[in-house]
Structure formats: C-alpha cells, structure tokens
Amino acid sequence: MRKLLMDAASRSARYAEEIGQRRVAPRDQEIAALHALGGTLPEHSEEPATVLRLLDEVGSPATVASTGGRYFGFVTGGTLPVALACNWLAGAWDQNVAVRAMSPVAAHLEDVAAEWLRQLFGLPSTCAVGFVTGATMANFTGLAAARHALLARAGWNVEEDGLFGAPPLRVVVGDEVHVSLLKALSLVGFGRTRVLRVPTDRQGRMRAAALPDLDDRTIVCIQAGNVNSGAFDPAADVCARATQAGAWVHVDGAFGLWAAAAPQRAHLVAGFDRADSWSVDCHKWLNVPYDSGLAFVRSAADLEAAMSVSAPYIAITPQREPWFHTPEASRRARAVEIWAALRSLGRFGLADLIEHDCRLAARFAERLSAAGVEVLNDVVLNQVVVAFGDDETTNRIIARVQNEGTCWCGGTMWRGRAAMRISVSSWVTTENDVDRSVEAILLERHRVLDPLRHRAIDPRGPD
Ligand SMILES: Cc1ncc(COP(=O)(O)O)c(C=O)c1O
C-alpha cells in the first residue's frame, strides 16, 4: 500500500511540476493513444502498480493542462496545492458525509466551512448550506427550496403530492440566463421554456425596468457573473421589488459571487445578499479540485423541508445533518478542500487571489485592444470577450489558438457575434502567462489575416 501511494504521489508531483512547460491542449496522437486504456474487460487481475503506471503514462499526456497558468477556457479554477494535498488525505479517509454519524470530521468541516463562507459572502448566520457537485446542482437545490416555500404558502405539499395539480408558479429569468439554470428549472419540474425572459442590456444584465409585476407565486432568477461578460444583474432593484411582492429571488453566482471576497470588487455584488437562495462554485474561483459547489438558502427550514428524508436505520443527531441540505445521500467530503483553501489563504489571501485574476483579465483586454483586437465587454471581473472581425475570421483564430498549444481560450456567441472568451480564474496565472498568451493569440491572428506576409517570416505559414 505505502509503495503504491508513494508512487502515485511522486507521479502526481511530477505532473504538477511540469504543467507549466507543456502544451495546454493535448496533441491528436496523445488522444489517439488513449485506446490503450480500453479493449475488452480483463479476465484476470493486474498489478496495482501496473494499472497506476498505465494511467499515468497514457492518461496524463491526454489531459488538458487546466491546472497550469495558461488555461482560460470556460470558467475553470486551478487547484491550490494545499487543497490538492488535503484532497489526497481525504481520499485515503474515504469518508461518506451523508449523516454525521458516518463521519464526525467531515460533518464538522462542513459546519466550519459553512460559517466561514457565510461570513465571506455577507449572508446571515442562519442561512443553510449544502455542499454539492457544482453550480448546476446548487441551482437545482436552491430552486427546490423555492418550490417548497412558495407552494407551502399556497397550501400545497409538493414533496408529498408532486407538481401535478399544484398551484402554478411563475419563473422569471434574464435573457442571458446560464443554461445550467434552465436545466435546473427543468429538473424541478418548471420547464425550460415556460419561463418569462426579461431583456438584457449590452453587457448581458437584466433590465430591472423591464421586470413584470411580481407576486408571491413568482421565482426571480438573477445572476452574479455572466458566463461571457462577467456582468452582474441589478440585484438591489430586483430584490427590492421582489421583497415587496413576496417573490423568491434565486442567485446564480457560480463564479461572480466570489467578488464579495475582494474589497475592490465587492461593489459588484451589492444587493445580492438580499436574495433568498444562492449558488456558488468552489471548483471555479476558490481553486479546489473538482467537483465542488455550494447552495445557500436563507430559510434553513425551506431547504430542510425540500431535502429531508428519514429511515429507521439512519441515526440522526440534533446537530446539522448534511443530507438534509443536499439532493444526494452518500457524498464525498467536499468540505475538506474548501476548509483547507480558506484556512490556508485566509480572508486576505482569498481577496488577493480574486483581485489578481481580475487585474490579469484587465491586462489581457488592454494588450489585445492596443493591438487592435475588439474587446466586446466591460471588463469588470475576470472575463474578457473579444472578436477579430467577422465571425468566420474569429472562429478560425480561436481554432488556431487552441491548436497551437501556448494557451487555450474558448469560443462563444456574444450579442449576435462570434467571439473568443478569456476567463482568468486560476491562482497560478502570472503576468508572464498573460503576455505569452497575448503574443500567441496575436501571432495566430497575423497568420490568418496576413498569410502571405506571414509566410515570408514564418516558413510554417498559414493553413
Ligand atoms: C453563471 C454560471 N452558472 C452555472 C454554471 C454551471 O456550473 P457547474 O458546471 O459547476 O455546474 C456556470 C459554469 O460555468 C456558470 O458560469
């Protein structure tokens, strides 16, 4: 056992040490080599050390170097060394945190992390917290609590009687709603297209003036951090209207809510603390290993009513029972890495991490803009959206950047135009990583826009 685990540790350390020197996206041949992991189900057992070696030798080269400093795809955090190390120890513990009796340490770490997180996000100490896989499940969890609360008020027990015949609820979203929220709406039985969509402005923010009349049968979903632009919905206006009408406000704050942790960005989340439920990802900006998300619900009773079940064989204590706060029963101890990251960074370290990434996003925007690239969004957070001319040109440049390997940026459609998204979400990214990436992006632009001149200076030439 010791030899195997030490081998795994030394392979992992090598992988982590070499991440900055390798291509960000794997080569085609490295992906093709993955066939060695397949074939028919083995009849006989194989040495654990051989299995580990195969995984490392074939699997590691086919990973995307998202823990390195030049991965800007989607909204992807790296992994803080302390979070990774504690994740390994937690792997050895192999704790199930469904109920407190199964793992006193994991349940206690949830209590501790929940309190620290409530303080960081400025949420009331009575607010309940569920440790889930990510923002999609956190959205699901918040909406399930909302569904319970609004239907209970209308005299309907949705947990017992389901939605058939229930009083109708209305759901209001911004036109720029994240797809995961629509998926969560479909999972709680509200449907993806039954929603009322409120128009948004140029940055993707919901126009508060265009909100319909609200009432106590309405759930309004707003977002802290548009997945492309990073923009924030006008929470103060929306929450004021909703509170007056008795409507429920759910916040999709997958990455944007972390702005609350950095004093220079905290103004962006003003008013969001007045909502009723919130979703946040830890595998994004807290830089803990996948998967890790949080659902916060102001009324613990509503979340517990939506999630609680009991069985005679499951011992329940009077303390907070983890499975009364999540859709899952058996779960890994995600609070371990969250606790480790917060304990290690402290309030100031976390603020620095958030602010550092925001500054690097601004650096990206300034350098690209200075070189004539069109920046399409106000860079208020960690997101930059750029275009290189028409859609075809932009898409060609994105594909070339991804293939070249210095960095990785994804594509999107922004306000009707093809665009490249740059998301700076890792603790490890440096100014040098940004400058190298800008250089690589501009070189690919040059290869596409000026192929003949480029061939004269670079014999590899254009496509
Ligand atoms: C605004 C927003 N909401 C929800 C999600 C979904 O998060 P997850 O993939 O962790 O479920 C994302 C992911 O990027 C997001 O940016």
Which helices and strands, and how do they pair?
Blueprint: H1 2-18, H2 28-32, H3 48-59, H4 81-93, H5 104-121, E1 128-132, H6 135-153, H7 158-161, E2 170-174, H8 179-187, E3 196-198, E4 218-223, H9 235-245, E5 248-252, E6 277-281, E7 293-297, H10 300-307, H11 335-370, E8 374-375, E9 383-387, H12 391-404, E10 410-414, E11 417-423, H13 431-449, H14 451-457
Parallel strand pairs: 2-3, 2-4, 4-5, 5-6
Antiparallel strand pairs: 1-7, 6-7, 8-9, 9-11, 10-11
This protein binds pyridoxal-5'-phosphate (PLP).
Architecture overview:
- By secondary structure, the protein is α/β, with parallel strands linked by helices.
- 41% of the residues lie in helices and 11% in strands.
- The strands form 2 sheets. Strands 1-7-6-5-4-2-3 form a 7-stranded mixed β-sheet, with helices on both faces. Strands 8-9-11-10 form a 4-stranded antiparallel β-sheet.
N-to-C span: 51 Å
CATH superfamily of the largest domain: Type I PLP-dependent aspartate aminotransferase-like (Major domain)
Shape designation: globular
Number of domains: 2
Mean pLDDT: 96
Taking pLDDT < 50 over at least 5 consecutive residues as the criterion, the unreliable ranges are: none
Individual helix count: 14
Can you tell me the CATH architecture of the largest domain?
A: 3-Layer(aba) Sandwich
CATH class of the largest domain, please? Alpha Beta
Radius of gyration from the alpha-carbon trace, in angstroms? 24 Å
CATH topology label of the largest domain:
Aspartate Aminotransferase, domain 2
Q: Portion of residues in helices?
A: 40-55%
What share of residues are in beta strands? 5-15%
> Helices and strands: which structural class?
alpha/beta
Largest sheet: 7 strands, mixed
The strand line-up of the biggest sheet is 1-7-6-5-4-2-3
